[in-house]
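Sample entry (216 residues):
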Amino acid sequence: MDSKANDIILVGGGGNCKVIIDLLSETPFNPIGILDPNLEKGSMFQGLSVLGTDDDAADIFESGVRKAVITIAMPCSLKKRLAEQYSKIGFAFPTLISDSAIIAPSAKIGAGTCVMPGANIGPDTIIGDQCTINVSSVVTHGITIDDYCNIAPNSTILGFVSVGESSLIGANSVIVQCNNVGHDCIVGAGAVVLKDVEDGAVMVGNPAKVLRKAEH
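Predicted structure, serialized as tokens:
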């Protein structure tokens, strides 16, 4: 077996990276270091070496490291750009799932998506690539979540909801069943969504109302 088969590089060294490092401890993957333009090359972050910036990614790939995890959860547009950049180099993105998450056998979870401790994903749910399903969030049955979405801690998405690409569902929010959230939306913390959300809308309150159009 290739000695580097489970080596993985972490892209981004912010707060969410710390959570991903803990998540990786539950997997067979071996984090070898971090790439982040805002950290000093050669310094240490959470016990891992900072190996440089995104400009060093190709050299790391050529050294035999073939896997990456995009640790940045927000903004979704940055996560998308980095995922596309690293994909062109050739990196693969494993799906990372906490041992304490509950995943229905019929659920489908895309490449690069991270499912955090205590998350609950119900039957016939489809989650796209490069999403974050955060701590103790509940995604019930028959839900579709497109790529690059961030489902924040303790949020609840009820049955037969769809969430468009690059949307944020804020902490402690609720999306009531059979509603659709468009792409590039932000549902604010604690909001309760009772109707469809147009593309690019920022929703706040209970019941949730449009605050403004999101910038992306």
